[in-house]
């Protein structure tokens, strides 16, 4: 949120950063193309010299014979932020001999960047970033830096450059002013780049790079025009913190997150006259103390989170931060109840004080922070009630108060925060009734997490039409009665967790109308009745997590009715999503559906503690990715299929307390299971139980389902690993969906890493 933008990039005058729209709608055959949206013509000749189709909702493949390549006079070409559907960057892009500006960023290009790009010798600006399956090989990069000698701005972020030696950076054009190589899989030592005398912005973050003291000192001391440096996650363990003493007078932004810096930080760092942003997050070996006086007055953003720098929370320290807009002092070993001092920092936009030992009540002085957009007081020891004075923080977008000792009722005044987009009050001792207004007080609310408290009463009823919720979690309270029908108004809801309550209801079939729902957890309630078939097209089409365990559902398992309008959905389209099914501890009856064996990506299957009968399906042996299989405490009969020995990733296997008989399969993972996996089956033999002697081993007969298999149930749907099952991830995994820093309201929830390295699916 900081407004530090010291470097003026030439990308802005040409690229369109507004909302996407179809520019080509204005293109009419027979009209002058120079008047078309996104087309720029030379006034004298009428030739097309510029084409700006950025964010134009374009979709499809660009082939080598595309008419685009007939525009020989092009000087500027911007195709960024479209979807070219895994197109290659064809060699014809290198034939625009007059091109000075080329942007193909974030448009789903894949494959190798052709050598012909290096033919664009007049390029001043090149941006191929955000195409996660692009590959730049050593030869192409060497030719690029050798031939394009006028280049001023280069952004290859997220392009795979793992084969490019960092030493190649020494050959970059001396005219370069802007260099971004974020998450390029570069590995090795950062070379000296003192020849880049015009460099204003350098970003080499999130690679596997190392940096030595001498190289760093030359970088930040000798490059007189350098304004922004981002070396997050670069290994700087050999760089002495004293190197930070003599920063270039022009340097305005320095980001050194998780760089392994060790030793005492010099006072002079905080006295640099022009430094506006300093980020030292995660350098746990960095120590020393902050100077009490003579700070520079231009600081706008400061992060000392997860360092061992001693901070004395007193008036002098607060006075040094009067102009700060973003302040991150999380995990800085603060104690006590002197939080009220922060109420004097009236310019604050973001305040993060999580993972400290603050205690006492949250001070009302924080209401003075009228500009605040994000407040994070989570993971402390605050007690008492949530201050009703928070209603004065009218600009607030994000409020984190989770993992404290807060008690009492949630004040209804919190519903006056009309701009609120994320509200997390989980893991406290809050009680009483959830304010009904939380269901409809803000159409901007995206995340509402009230889990692990002592709330009673019912789930708020009035979720309004146009609801923007994507994450809704009431897990671990004492809520009763029904799942409100109005939740179906939240059409973009992705995660719904109502587990561990006292909800007494039948299965809420209306949830199948939520087109984006990926996670549904209803475990450990008092739900009952049949899980009937779906009534809508593509019901639960994106569901990835399906946990109905520990309820009182009865009847046949929700089997393989993957149908809509009488047509079978192609299983191949959903197999990559399904990883966990937990239907344990219910009253399901009947046989295990053979169709489960088609869900090839399944990692956890728990059908234990039901009343299932018949054989264990041999088709389960097709689940080559399965890590945990629990069929215990049922009424299963027959033998354990030998096909199950093919599951080489199986770590947990439980069939105890059934009526199984015959030899236990041998080899592979079955040599690792102990007797507890089989107890309560008196007819079983073989390792690790009694010897089977000379009993002849036979292939078990596959269960014949045919007409006996249930037609009831909305089917096995895609699930994310471990949710609600405790094997891989916990419930908090749901927050990963929102962990993006910009725009502001998206959540950073995975502690210790605030940036996610994105990966685009090919699907």
TrEMBL record:
InterPro entries per UniProt: Leu-rich_rpt, Leu-rich_rpt_typical-subtyp, LRR_dom_sf, RLP23-like
Cellular compartments annotated: Cell membrane
Membrane topology: Single-pass type I membrane protein
UniProt xrefs under SUPFAM superfamilies: L domain-like
UniProt keyword terms in alphabetical order: Cell membrane, Glycoprotein, Leucine-rich repeat, Membrane, Receptor, Repeat, Signal, Transmembrane, Transmembrane helix
Pfam family, one: LRR_8
Family per record: Belongs to the RLP family.
Protein name, per record: Leucine-rich repeat-containing N-terminal plant-type domain-containing protein
Species annotation: Hevea brasiliensis
Lineage: Eukaryota, Viridiplantae, Streptophyta, Embryophyta, Tracheophyta
């Amino acid at each position: 949120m900081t407004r530090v933008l010291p470097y003026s990039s030439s990308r802005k005058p040409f690229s369109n950063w507004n909302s996407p729209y179809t520019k080509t709608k204005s293109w009419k055959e027979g009209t002058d193309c120079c008047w078309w949206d996104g087309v720029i013509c030379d006034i004298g000749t009428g030739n097309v010299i510029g084409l700006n189709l950025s964010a134009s909702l374009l979709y499809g493949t660009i082939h080598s014979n595309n008419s685009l390549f007939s525009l020989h006079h092009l000087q500027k070409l911007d195709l960024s932020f479209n979807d070219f559907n895994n197109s290659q960057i064809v060699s014809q892009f290198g034939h625009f001999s007059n091109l000075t500006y080329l942007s193909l960023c974030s448009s789903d290009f894949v494959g190798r960047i052709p050598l012909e790009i290096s033919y664009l010798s007049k390029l001043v600006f090149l941006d191929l970033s955000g195409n996660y399956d692009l590959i730049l090989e050593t030869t192409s990069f060497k030719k690029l830096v050798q031939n394009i000698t006028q280049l001023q701005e280069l952004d290859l972020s997220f392009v795979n450059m793992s084969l490019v030696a960092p030493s190649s950076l020494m050959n970059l054009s001396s005219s370069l002013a802007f260099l971004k190589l974020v998450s390029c899989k570069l590995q090795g030592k950062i070379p000296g780049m003192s020849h880049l005398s015009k460099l204003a912005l350098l970003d080499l973050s999130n690679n596997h790079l190392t940096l030595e003291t001498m190289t760093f000192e030359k970088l930040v001391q000798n490059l007189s025009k350098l304004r922004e440096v981002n070396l997050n996650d670069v290994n700087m363990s050999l760089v002495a913190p004293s190197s930070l003493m003599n920063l270039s007078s022009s340097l305005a932004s320095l980001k050194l997150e998780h760089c392994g810096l060790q030793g005492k930080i010099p006072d002079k760092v905080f006295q640099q006259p022009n430094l506006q942003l300093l980020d030292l997050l995660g350098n746990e070996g960095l120590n020393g103390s902050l100077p009490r006086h003579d700070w520079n007055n231009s600081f706008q953003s400061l992060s000392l989170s997860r360092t061992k720098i001693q901070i004395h929370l007193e008036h002098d320290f607060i006075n040094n931060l009067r102009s700060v807009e973003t302040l991150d002092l999380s995990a800085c070993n603060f104690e006590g109840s002197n939080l009220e001092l922060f109420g004097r920092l009236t310019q604050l936009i973001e305040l993060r004080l999580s993972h400290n030992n603050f205690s006492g009540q949250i001070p009302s002085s924080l209401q003075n922070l009228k500009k605040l957009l994000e407040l994070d007081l989570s993971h402390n020891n605050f007690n008492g009630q949530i201050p009703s004075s928070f209603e004065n923080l009218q600009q607030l977008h994000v409020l984190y108060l989770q993992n404290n000792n807060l008690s009492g009722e949630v004040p209804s005044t919190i519903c006056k925060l009309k701009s609120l987009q994320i509200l997390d009050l989980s893991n406290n001792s809050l009680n009483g009734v959830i304010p009904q207004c939380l269901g409809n007080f803000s159409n901007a609310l995206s995340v509402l997490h009230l889990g692990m408290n002592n709330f009673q009463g019912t789930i708020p009823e009035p979720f309004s039409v146009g609801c923007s919720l994507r994450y809704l979690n009431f897990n671990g309270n004492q809520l009763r009665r029904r799942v409100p029908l109005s939740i179906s108004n939240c059409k973009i809801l992705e995660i719904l967790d109502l587990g561990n309550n006292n909800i007494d209801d039948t299965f809420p079939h209306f949830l199948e109308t939520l087109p984006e729902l990926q996670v549904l957890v209803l475990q450990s309630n008092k739900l009952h009745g049949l899980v009937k078939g779906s009534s809508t097209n593509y019901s639960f089409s994106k569901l990835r997590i399906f946990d109905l365990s520990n309820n009182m559902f009865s009847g046949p398992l929700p089997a393989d009715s993957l149908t809509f309008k009488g047509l079978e959905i192609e299983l191949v389209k959903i197999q990559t999503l399904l990883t966990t099914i937990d239907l344990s501890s219910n009253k399901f009856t009947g046989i295990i559906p053979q169709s489960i064996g088609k869900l090839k990506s399944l990692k956890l299957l728990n059908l234990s503690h039901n009343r299932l009968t018949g054989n264990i399906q041999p088709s389960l042996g097709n689940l080559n990715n399965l890590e945990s299989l629990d069929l215990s405490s049922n009424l299963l009969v027959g033998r354990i299929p030998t096909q199950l020995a093919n599951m080489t990733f199986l770590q947990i296997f439980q069939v105890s307390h059934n009526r199984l008989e015959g030899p236990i399969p041998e080899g592979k993972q079955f040599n690792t299971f102990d007797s507890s996996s089989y107890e309560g089956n008196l007819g079983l033999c073989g390792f690790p139980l009694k010897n089977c002697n000379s009993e002849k081993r036979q292939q078990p007969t596959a269960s014949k389902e045919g007409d006996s298999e249930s037609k009831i149930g909305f089917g096995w749907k895609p699930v994310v690993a471990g949710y609600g099952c405790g094997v891989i991830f916990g419930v908090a995994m749901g927050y990963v969906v929102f962990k993006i820093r910009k725009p502001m309201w998206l959540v950073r929830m995975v502690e210790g890493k605030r940036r996610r390295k994105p990966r685009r699916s090919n699907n």
